[in-house]
Write a structure and sequence with these properties.
Blueprint lengths: L13 E2 L5 E2 L4 E5 L3 E3 L8 E7 L2 E2 L9 E3 L2 E5 L8 E4 L6 E4 L2 E5 L2 E4 L1 E4 L2 E5 L4 E2 L13 E4 L9 E4 L5 E10 L25 E10 L9 E12 L5 E3 L7 E3 L2
Parallel strand pairs: 4-7
Antiparallel strand pairs: 1-2, 3-5, 5-6, 8-14, 9-12, 10-11, 11-17, 13-16, 14-15, 18-20, 19-20, 21-22
């Protein structure tokens, strides 16, 4: 009799766990789970199952695996603040001493807004459409902002005109025996010059009395120079009343 016969190969195929059959000698990929949440990947859950004469290797029973992710909003830092410092013009200068004084101005901040980028980030680092993230938790992309950095100065030193000038008056000793106008104002005369601190200095001169005034006696004449403060720094000539320069209010 014959020692061999044709083989019916159908019983050699393998039944798949999700239905259907796998031809003998072929392989299929199966998964331990139907989904994977990143950072776990579907590839890490895969297993190759091979049909060998009716026996299917391996044990994983899922035909497919869906890769899942979490999504969250990502924001950048704030930028582009439109707030700015504003100032008025300087006030008029008012002297407070011989070295001058100060003037002021208003300084204020005009508030503005600033922006930031907001995007939906998948937990594998990919930026995706906003629709993947929860719209109810979307961060604001703009907000009010105020001025940064130091504010401009609101006061500064100044000097109006000439704060202090030397004014003078004249005196005689003994009392003049005739019209003192004949004596004049001789020698050094700093009248009207700028000065640095209130005070006075005396310059004394000796003159021979005119013959018409009764002899050749000597008379003492002096000029007193006073450093006078003027808040406005504006002076005007007020002769013949001493002092001959006066401060304008």
């Amino acid at each position: 009799g014959s020692s061999s016969q044709a083989c019916n190969t159908s019983p050699c195929d393998c039944n798949l766990p999700w239905g259907g059959t796998l031809t003998n000698g072929n392989s299929v990929t199966a998964y331990s789970s139907s989904s994977a949440l990143f950072p776990t990947t579907c590839a890490s859950l895969a297993q190759t199952r091979t049909c060998s004469t009716g026996v299917l290797s391996g044990s994983f029973s899922n035909q497919a695996c869906t890769q899942n992710y979490t999504y969250d909003w990502q924001v950048s830092g704030w930028f582009g603040c439109s707030a700015s410092w504003n100032t008025d013009g300087w006030s008029s200068c008012s002297n407070s001493s011989c070295s001058g004084g100060s003037q002021t101005r208003s300084v204020w901040c005009s508030g503005g807004s600033e922006s930031r980028s907001v995007s939906c980030l998948r937990n594998d680092g990919a930026t995706v459409a906003d629709g993947f993230c929860n719209a109810g938790t979307r961060p604001s992309s703009s907000q009010a902002c105020s001025c940064s950095g130091g504010a401009p100065s609101s006061s500064q030193a100044c000097s109006a005109g000439t704060p202090c000038r030397l004014t003078w008056s004249t005196w005689w000793w003994p009392a003049p025996s005739c019209n003192p106008g004949g004596h004049g104002n001789a020698g050094f005369d700093p009248h009207g010059a700028s000065c640095g601190s209130p005070g006075s200095t005396n310059s004394t001169y000796w003159f021979t009395l005119p013959i018409s005034c009764g002899g050749s006696g000597m008379e003492k004449i002096g000029n007193t120079y006073t450093c006078t403060f003027c808040p406005s720094g504006v002076w005007y000539t007020c002769a013949p009343v001493n002092p001959t320069v006066c401060c304008s209010p």
